[in-house]
From TrEMBL:
It comes from Microlunatus spumicola. InterPro entries: Aminotrans_II_pyridoxalP_BS, Aminotransferase_I/II_large, HisP_aminotrans, PyrdxlP-dep_Trfase, PyrdxlP-dep_Trfase_major, PyrdxlP-dep_Trfase_small. PANTHER family: HISTIDINOL-PHOSPHATE AMINOTRANSFERASE (PTHR42885:SF2), HISTIDINOL-PHOSPHATE AMINOTRANSFERASE-RELATED (PTHR42885). CDD domains: AAT_like (cd00609). PROSITE patterns: AA_TRANSFER_CLASS_2 (PS00599). This is Histidinol-phosphate aminotransferase. Its cofactor is pyridoxal 5'-phosphate. The gene is hisC. Homodimer. Belongs to the class-II pyridoxal-phosphate-dependent aminotransferase family. Histidinol-phosphate aminotransferase subfamily. Pathway: Amino-acid biosynthesis; L-histidine biosynthesis; L-histidine from 5-phospho-alpha-D-ribose 1-diphosphate: step 7/9. NCBIfam families: hisC, PRK03317.1.
Length: 363
Protein backbone atom coordinates (compact mmCIF):
# COMPACT_ATOMS: atom_id res chain seq x y z
CA UNK A 1 0.00 0.00 0.00
CA UNK A 2 1.74 3.19 -1.10
CA UNK A 3 -0.92 5.88 -0.88
CA UNK A 4 -3.52 6.40 1.81
CA UNK A 5 -6.92 8.01 1.57
CA UNK A 6 -6.25 10.34 4.50
CA UNK A 7 -6.27 13.65 2.61
CA UNK A 8 -8.95 15.96 3.88
CA UNK A 9 -8.88 14.41 7.35
CA UNK A 10 -7.60 16.45 10.28
CA UNK A 11 -4.62 14.12 10.77
CA UNK A 12 -1.83 15.00 13.21
CA UNK A 13 0.64 16.99 11.05
CA UNK A 14 3.51 14.58 11.71
CA UNK A 15 1.44 11.72 10.26
CA UNK A 16 0.69 13.43 6.94
CA UNK A 17 2.43 11.50 4.17
CA UNK A 18 3.28 8.58 6.49
CA UNK A 19 2.45 5.01 5.46
CA UNK A 20 1.87 1.93 7.66
CA UNK A 21 5.10 0.14 8.55
CA UNK A 22 5.77 -3.29 7.13
CA UNK A 23 7.74 -5.34 4.62
CA UNK A 24 5.78 -6.42 1.55
CA UNK A 25 3.69 -9.54 2.33
CA UNK A 26 3.93 -11.29 -1.04
CA UNK A 27 2.81 -14.78 -1.90
CA UNK A 28 6.07 -16.09 -3.35
CA UNK A 29 7.67 -19.54 -2.94
CA UNK A 30 10.72 -18.42 -0.92
CA UNK A 31 10.13 -15.84 1.81
CA UNK A 32 13.34 -14.74 3.50
CA UNK A 33 12.39 -11.16 4.35
CA UNK A 34 11.10 -10.94 7.93
CA UNK A 35 13.44 -13.24 9.87
CA UNK A 36 10.81 -15.83 10.73
CA UNK A 37 11.67 -19.34 11.81
CA UNK A 38 10.73 -21.36 8.70
CA UNK A 39 9.91 -24.51 10.70
CA UNK A 40 6.32 -24.74 11.97
CA UNK A 41 5.16 -26.72 15.02
CA UNK A 42 4.75 -30.51 14.92
CA UNK A 43 1.30 -32.09 14.67
CA UNK A 44 1.57 -33.02 18.36
CA UNK A 45 2.01 -29.36 19.36
CA UNK A 46 -0.68 -28.28 16.89
CA UNK A 47 -3.08 -30.70 18.64
CA UNK A 48 -2.18 -29.31 22.08
CA UNK A 49 -2.72 -25.76 20.83
CA UNK A 50 -6.08 -26.70 19.33
CA UNK A 51 -7.20 -28.32 22.62
CA UNK A 52 -6.10 -25.25 24.61
CA UNK A 53 -7.92 -22.91 22.25
CA UNK A 54 -11.07 -25.06 22.51
CA UNK A 55 -10.91 -24.88 26.31
CA UNK A 56 -10.44 -21.11 26.26
CA UNK A 57 -13.25 -20.75 23.67
CA UNK A 58 -15.73 -21.96 26.29
CA UNK A 59 -14.87 -18.92 28.41
CA UNK A 60 -14.64 -16.27 25.73
CA UNK A 61 -17.65 -14.49 27.25
CA UNK A 62 -15.28 -13.49 30.08
CA UNK A 63 -12.40 -11.03 29.90
CA UNK A 64 -8.95 -12.61 30.03
CA UNK A 65 -6.70 -12.59 33.10
CA UNK A 66 -5.70 -8.93 32.99
CA UNK A 67 -2.13 -9.16 34.22
CA UNK A 68 -1.33 -12.47 32.46
CA UNK A 69 0.42 -13.64 35.62
CA UNK A 70 0.58 -17.36 34.74
CA UNK A 71 2.06 -16.58 31.34
CA UNK A 72 4.56 -14.14 32.86
CA UNK A 73 5.59 -16.83 35.36
CA UNK A 74 6.17 -19.27 32.49
CA UNK A 75 8.22 -16.66 30.62
CA UNK A 76 10.28 -15.99 33.77
CA UNK A 77 10.94 -19.73 34.14
CA UNK A 78 12.03 -19.88 30.50
CA UNK A 79 14.45 -16.98 31.00
CA UNK A 80 15.93 -18.36 34.23
CA UNK A 81 18.41 -16.02 35.97
CA UNK A 82 16.25 -16.19 39.14
CA UNK A 83 13.51 -14.09 37.50
CA UNK A 84 9.86 -14.30 38.61
CA UNK A 85 6.54 -13.14 37.11
CA UNK A 86 7.05 -9.75 38.82
CA UNK A 87 10.21 -9.18 36.75
CA UNK A 88 8.51 -9.96 33.44
CA UNK A 89 6.14 -8.00 31.25
CA UNK A 90 4.35 -9.40 28.18
CA UNK A 91 2.42 -7.89 25.28
CA UNK A 92 1.34 -8.52 21.69
CA UNK A 93 4.84 -8.77 20.22
CA UNK A 94 7.91 -6.94 21.43
CA UNK A 95 6.71 -4.04 19.27
CA UNK A 96 3.92 -3.48 21.79
CA UNK A 97 6.30 -3.99 24.71
CA UNK A 98 8.52 -1.21 23.31
CA UNK A 99 5.53 1.05 22.80
CA UNK A 100 4.67 0.53 26.48
CA UNK A 101 8.26 1.44 27.40
CA UNK A 102 8.08 4.69 25.44
CA UNK A 103 4.58 5.49 26.71
CA UNK A 104 5.89 5.15 30.25
CA UNK A 105 9.35 6.69 29.97
CA UNK A 106 9.42 8.92 26.85
CA UNK A 107 6.74 11.31 25.53
CA UNK A 108 6.50 15.04 24.76
CA UNK A 109 9.72 16.90 25.58
CA UNK A 110 11.58 13.64 26.09
CA UNK A 111 14.21 11.95 23.92
CA UNK A 112 14.81 8.40 22.70
CA UNK A 113 18.34 7.55 21.57
CA UNK A 114 19.55 4.65 19.44
CA UNK A 115 22.58 3.69 17.35
CA UNK A 116 22.07 3.41 13.59
CA UNK A 117 21.71 1.41 11.46
CA UNK A 118 19.18 -0.36 13.64
CA UNK A 119 15.60 -1.61 13.79
CA UNK A 120 13.44 0.65 11.65
CA UNK A 121 10.42 0.57 13.99
CA UNK A 122 12.20 2.58 16.72
CA UNK A 123 11.53 5.98 15.09
CA UNK A 124 7.89 4.95 14.70
CA UNK A 125 7.48 4.14 18.41
CA UNK A 126 8.97 7.58 19.08
CA UNK A 127 6.67 9.33 16.60
CA UNK A 128 3.62 7.59 18.02
CA UNK A 129 4.47 8.61 21.58
CA UNK A 130 5.32 12.23 20.60
CA UNK A 131 8.95 11.68 21.62
CA UNK A 132 12.09 13.06 19.96
CA UNK A 133 14.21 10.37 18.29
CA UNK A 134 17.96 10.76 17.91
CA UNK A 135 20.51 8.34 16.45
CA UNK A 136 24.27 8.19 16.62
CA UNK A 137 26.24 6.13 14.10
CA UNK A 138 27.62 2.69 14.83
CA UNK A 139 31.27 2.06 13.94
CA UNK A 140 32.25 0.94 10.41
CA UNK A 141 31.88 -2.74 11.47
CA UNK A 142 28.45 -1.95 13.04
CA UNK A 143 29.68 -2.37 16.63
CA UNK A 144 29.11 0.37 19.20
CA UNK A 145 32.22 2.06 20.48
CA UNK A 146 32.00 2.53 24.28
CA UNK A 147 33.53 6.01 24.33
CA UNK A 148 31.40 7.22 21.44
CA UNK A 149 28.29 5.77 23.11
CA UNK A 150 29.00 7.50 26.41
CA UNK A 151 29.69 10.78 24.56
CA UNK A 152 26.33 10.40 22.75
CA UNK A 153 24.53 9.95 26.07
CA UNK A 154 26.29 12.93 27.63
CA UNK A 155 25.41 15.10 24.65
CA UNK A 156 21.70 14.18 24.46
CA UNK A 157 20.81 13.14 28.04
CA UNK A 158 18.18 10.72 26.65
CA UNK A 159 15.18 9.50 28.64
CA UNK A 160 15.23 6.14 26.83
CA UNK A 161 18.12 4.34 25.11
CA UNK A 162 17.22 1.50 22.75
CA UNK A 163 20.04 -0.85 21.76
CA UNK A 164 19.60 -4.04 19.82
CA UNK A 165 21.70 -7.14 20.38
CA UNK A 166 22.05 -8.95 18.05
CA UNK A 167 21.24 -5.87 16.01
CA UNK A 168 18.72 -5.81 13.18
CA UNK A 169 19.59 -5.43 10.29
CA UNK A 170 23.31 -6.00 10.84
CA UNK A 171 23.35 -9.07 13.15
CA UNK A 172 25.94 -7.45 15.44
CA UNK A 173 26.01 -8.59 19.08
CA UNK A 174 26.76 -6.04 21.78
CA UNK A 175 29.35 -6.63 24.47
CA UNK A 176 28.22 -6.41 28.12
CA UNK A 177 30.75 -3.59 28.64
CA UNK A 178 28.80 -1.37 26.25
CA UNK A 179 25.50 -2.06 28.04
CA UNK A 180 27.06 -1.33 31.44
CA UNK A 181 28.60 1.90 30.12
CA UNK A 182 25.26 2.99 28.64
CA UNK A 183 23.39 2.33 31.88
CA UNK A 184 26.06 4.06 33.97
CA UNK A 185 26.16 7.14 31.74
CA UNK A 186 22.43 7.36 31.10
CA UNK A 187 20.04 9.46 33.18
CA UNK A 188 17.06 7.45 31.87
CA UNK A 189 16.21 3.85 31.10
CA UNK A 190 18.15 1.53 28.78
CA UNK A 191 16.42 -1.28 26.90
CA UNK A 192 18.45 -4.01 25.26
CA UNK A 193 16.33 -5.52 22.48
CA UNK A 194 17.35 -9.18 22.38
CA UNK A 195 14.75 -10.30 19.80
CA UNK A 196 17.38 -12.54 18.20
CA UNK A 197 19.39 -13.61 21.25
CA UNK A 198 18.72 -17.35 20.92
CA UNK A 199 20.53 -17.34 17.56
CA UNK A 200 23.72 -15.82 18.99
CA UNK A 201 26.87 -17.92 18.96
CA UNK A 202 27.24 -20.16 21.98
CA UNK A 203 28.61 -18.28 24.93
CA UNK A 204 27.38 -14.84 23.80
CA UNK A 205 26.24 -13.30 27.11
CA UNK A 206 22.71 -11.96 27.50
CA UNK A 207 22.09 -8.59 29.12
CA UNK A 208 19.80 -10.53 31.51
CA UNK A 209 22.97 -11.21 33.48
CA UNK A 210 23.34 -7.47 34.06
CA UNK A 211 19.85 -6.90 35.52
CA UNK A 212 20.60 -7.36 39.25
CA UNK A 213 21.35 -3.97 40.81
CA UNK A 214 20.41 -2.03 37.64
CA UNK A 215 16.76 -0.93 38.05
CA UNK A 216 16.87 1.29 34.94
CA UNK A 217 17.92 -1.58 32.63
CA UNK A 218 15.44 -3.80 30.78
CA UNK A 219 15.89 -6.66 28.33
CA UNK A 220 13.24 -7.31 25.72
CA UNK A 221 12.67 -10.60 23.94
CA UNK A 222 10.14 -12.08 21.55
CA UNK A 223 8.63 -15.46 20.73
CA UNK A 224 8.45 -14.38 17.04
CA UNK A 225 11.91 -15.47 15.94
CA UNK A 226 13.73 -18.46 17.47
CA UNK A 227 10.51 -19.60 19.16
CA UNK A 228 8.71 -20.03 15.81
CA UNK A 229 5.68 -18.14 17.13
CA UNK A 230 5.51 -14.97 15.00
CA UNK A 231 1.81 -15.50 14.29
CA UNK A 232 1.05 -15.92 18.02
CA UNK A 233 2.20 -12.32 18.73
CA UNK A 234 3.98 -12.56 22.04
CA UNK A 235 6.82 -10.30 23.11
CA UNK A 236 8.13 -9.82 26.63
CA UNK A 237 10.58 -7.90 28.76
CA UNK A 238 12.57 -8.59 31.91
CA UNK A 239 13.45 -5.85 34.39
CA UNK A 240 13.19 -4.80 37.98
CA UNK A 241 9.58 -5.20 39.29
CA UNK A 242 9.26 -1.40 39.61
CA UNK A 243 10.05 -1.04 35.89
CA UNK A 244 7.35 -3.63 35.13
CA UNK A 245 4.86 -1.75 37.31
CA UNK A 246 5.53 1.39 35.24
CA UNK A 247 4.54 -0.52 32.09
CA UNK A 248 1.39 -1.84 33.77
CA UNK A 249 0.20 1.77 34.17
CA UNK A 250 0.13 2.41 30.41
CA UNK A 251 -1.10 -0.93 29.07
CA UNK A 252 -4.68 -1.15 27.87
CA UNK A 253 -6.84 -3.33 30.09
CA UNK A 254 -7.01 -6.93 28.81
CA UNK A 255 -4.39 -6.22 26.13
CA UNK A 256 -3.42 -9.91 25.89
CA UNK A 257 -6.36 -12.02 24.71
CA UNK A 258 -7.23 -15.27 26.48
CA UNK A 259 -6.36 -17.13 23.28
CA UNK A 260 -2.94 -15.46 23.03
CA UNK A 261 -2.15 -16.26 26.67
CA UNK A 262 -3.20 -19.88 26.44
CA UNK A 263 -1.47 -20.58 23.14
CA UNK A 264 1.75 -18.92 24.27
CA UNK A 265 1.72 -21.07 27.40
CA UNK A 266 1.40 -24.23 25.30
CA UNK A 267 4.31 -23.07 23.14
CA UNK A 268 6.41 -22.39 26.26
CA UNK A 269 5.54 -25.81 27.69
CA UNK A 270 7.00 -27.22 24.46
CA UNK A 271 10.02 -24.91 24.42
CA UNK A 272 12.42 -27.71 23.52
CA UNK A 273 10.52 -28.54 20.39
CA UNK A 274 9.71 -24.93 19.44
CA UNK A 275 13.42 -24.07 19.65
CA UNK A 276 14.63 -27.28 18.01
CA UNK A 277 15.52 -25.61 14.71
CA UNK A 278 17.74 -22.93 16.25
CA UNK A 279 20.98 -24.91 15.80
CA UNK A 280 20.08 -25.72 12.20
CA UNK A 281 19.30 -22.06 11.51
CA UNK A 282 22.59 -20.95 13.07
CA UNK A 283 24.39 -23.34 10.73
CA UNK A 284 22.33 -22.11 7.79
CA UNK A 285 23.31 -18.53 8.69
CA UNK A 286 27.02 -19.36 8.92
CA UNK A 287 26.91 -21.33 5.70
CA UNK A 288 25.06 -18.50 3.97
CA UNK A 289 27.59 -15.92 5.20
CA UNK A 290 30.52 -18.05 4.04
CA UNK A 291 28.87 -18.63 0.66
CA UNK A 292 28.26 -14.90 0.15
CA UNK A 293 31.88 -14.13 1.07
CA UNK A 294 32.95 -16.81 -1.40
CA UNK A 295 30.89 -15.02 -4.01
CA UNK A 296 33.09 -11.95 -3.40
CA UNK A 297 30.48 -10.03 -1.44
CA UNK A 298 30.80 -8.04 1.76
CA UNK A 299 29.01 -9.65 4.72
CA UNK A 300 28.33 -8.24 8.19
CA UNK A 301 29.30 -10.58 11.02
CA UNK A 302 25.96 -11.98 12.27
CA UNK A 303 24.75 -13.46 15.55
CA UNK A 304 21.13 -13.44 14.37
CA UNK A 305 19.11 -15.59 11.94
CA UNK A 306 19.85 -13.32 8.99
CA UNK A 307 22.78 -11.89 7.10
CA UNK A 308 23.34 -8.37 5.79
CA UNK A 309 25.31 -8.42 2.57
CA UNK A 310 26.40 -5.99 -0.13
CA UNK A 311 27.32 -3.72 -1.49
CA UNK A 312 25.34 -3.05 -4.63
CA UNK A 313 25.19 0.11 -6.71
CA UNK A 314 21.49 -0.58 -7.29
CA UNK A 315 20.23 -2.78 -4.48
CA UNK A 316 16.62 -2.33 -5.50
CA UNK A 317 17.34 -3.82 -8.93
CA UNK A 318 18.94 -6.86 -7.25
CA UNK A 319 16.04 -7.22 -4.80
CA UNK A 320 13.59 -7.08 -7.72
CA UNK A 321 15.59 -9.56 -9.82
CA UNK A 322 15.51 -12.05 -6.91
CA UNK A 323 11.78 -11.48 -6.46
CA UNK A 324 11.27 -12.12 -10.18
CA UNK A 325 12.85 -15.51 -9.47
CA UNK A 326 10.45 -16.21 -6.56
CA UNK A 327 12.83 -15.22 -3.74
CA UNK A 328 11.77 -12.42 -1.41
CA UNK A 329 14.47 -10.79 0.73
CA UNK A 330 14.57 -7.39 2.46
CA UNK A 331 15.70 -4.07 1.12
CA UNK A 332 16.82 -2.56 4.40
CA UNK A 333 19.91 -1.20 6.12
CA UNK A 334 22.56 1.21 4.90
CA UNK A 335 22.55 2.09 1.18
CA UNK A 336 23.90 -0.74 -0.96
CA UNK A 337 23.15 -3.55 1.50
CA UNK A 338 20.41 -6.20 1.51
CA UNK A 339 19.25 -8.58 4.25
CA UNK A 340 18.37 -12.24 3.85
CA UNK A 341 16.97 -14.55 6.55
CA UNK A 342 18.35 -18.03 7.21
CA UNK A 343 15.85 -20.60 5.92
CA UNK A 344 15.41 -24.28 5.17
CA UNK A 345 18.02 -26.05 2.97
CA UNK A 346 15.57 -25.79 0.05
CA UNK A 347 15.09 -22.05 0.61
CA UNK A 348 18.83 -21.48 0.91
CA UNK A 349 19.44 -23.42 -2.31
CA UNK A 350 16.77 -21.39 -4.12
CA UNK A 351 18.29 -18.13 -2.85
CA UNK A 352 21.80 -19.11 -3.91
CA UNK A 353 20.68 -20.24 -7.36
CA UNK A 354 18.71 -17.04 -7.89
CA UNK A 355 21.52 -14.78 -6.65
CA UNK A 356 24.08 -16.62 -8.77
CA UNK A 357 21.91 -16.19 -11.81
CA UNK A 358 21.44 -12.48 -11.19
CA UNK A 359 25.10 -11.80 -10.41
CA UNK A 360 26.31 -13.85 -13.38
CA UNK A 361 23.96 -12.08 -15.74
CA UNK A 362 25.49 -8.80 -14.48
CA UNK A 363 29.11 -9.96 -14.85
N1 LIG B 1 12.95 -6.03 17.74
C1 LIG B 1 13.66 -6.35 16.66
C2 LIG B 1 15.11 -6.04 16.66
C3 LIG B 1 13.04 -6.95 15.57
O1 LIG B 1 13.77 -7.25 14.48
C4 LIG B 1 11.66 -7.23 15.62
C5 LIG B 1 10.91 -7.89 14.48
N2 LIG B 1 11.40 -7.77 13.25
C6 LIG B 1 10.97 -6.86 16.77
C7 LIG B 1 11.64 -6.27 17.82
C8 LIG B 1 9.49 -7.04 16.90
O2 LIG B 1 9.10 -8.33 16.91
P1 LIG B 1 7.68 -8.81 17.46
O3 LIG B 1 6.80 -7.60 17.57
O4 LIG B 1 7.21 -9.78 16.44
O5 LIG B 1 7.96 -9.42 18.79
Amino acid sequence: MSTLATSGLPLRPELVGEVPYGAPQLDVPVRLNVNENPYGPSEAVVAQIAAAVAASARELNRYPERDAVALRADLAAYLGHGLTADHVWAANGSNEVMLHVLQAFAGPGRTVLSFAPTYSMYPEYARDTHSAFVTFPRAEDFTIDVDAAVAAIEETRPDVVLVTSPNNPTGTALSPEVVVALVDASPGVVVVDEAYHEFARTGTPSALELLPGRPRLAVSRTMSKAFAFAGGRLGYLAADPAFVDALRIVRLPYHLSAVTQTVARVALANAGEMLAAVDRLREARDDLAAWLVGRGLEVADSDANFVLFGRFADRHALWQALLDRGVLIREVGPPGWLRVSAGTPEEMAAFKTALDEVLTSDD
